[in-house]
Known about the structure:
With about 260 residues, the chain is of the alpha/beta class. The protein contains ten helices and 13 strands. The protein has a five-stranded mixed beta sheet. The chain has a five-stranded mixed beta sheet with strand order 10-9-11-8-12. A three-stranded antiparallel beta sheet has the order 2-3-4. The longest helix is centred in the N-terminal third of the chain and has 25 residues, at about 1-25.
Amino acid sequence: MKTKLFTAALSLLATLTLVVSAPARADDTLAAVMAKKSIAIGIPTDFPPFGFVGTDFKPNGLDVEVAKLIAAKLGVKADLVPVSTPNRIPYLQTKKIDLIVSALGKTPERAAVIDFTIPYSPFYLGVFGAKDMPIKTFADLAGKTVAVTRGTIQADILQQKAPPSLKIDRFQDDASTISAFVSGQTQLLATGVSAADAAIKKNPNLHAELKLVLKDSPNYVGVRKGDTALLDKVNAILRQARADGTLNSYSEHWLGRGLGNLPE
């Protein structure tokens, strides 16, 4: 009898230990980062001007600068990991990266599985097409084709608001999405204004322009659920960079406009 009671007591103690220690394990990323003196940050490499490979074959762009800023302020090495729209959140959840700095918009669905910092840059989503194509409302999209990246906010908006006859071609990454539009595979393109502007400037024969604004969706840094210490630290870095004008200078350089009125 005593043996059974002793065994039961040990089992209960082990269960309580797991319950008490679980939050600590969920919040240990900052400590691990400081111990190894490096932080793995997911960045885009196919989505200018937020992230792209420069002529020196190194990552460049607004998100790359923000990622490097965070690492520098933490006093650790920036381990920049290329990510795509579909894999960036799984990479974070499976600890392949510690943060996402990859033109990440905040949605209720995403907020259910990861945490978000305060926003660090503006991001406008739109539908683009030929200048001679009359599109003023979502109803005007009927019967047309549009290229969009799978798993993005713009894909969700089109699915919800566009007429059923709009053919939505979903691609795995932003480069493929833009390429489909540029090559004439689709009539329209749904993406960020800055990325579309860059594509239009490179391909003036498209005679394309902004047709519809889908959403003003600022960019946030993504953090694993429960990583409160890292979340608070990155928020402090971003707030200081807002206050001293660093983030505004990044926005003006890469996007051609300042931060505007970003939410807190």
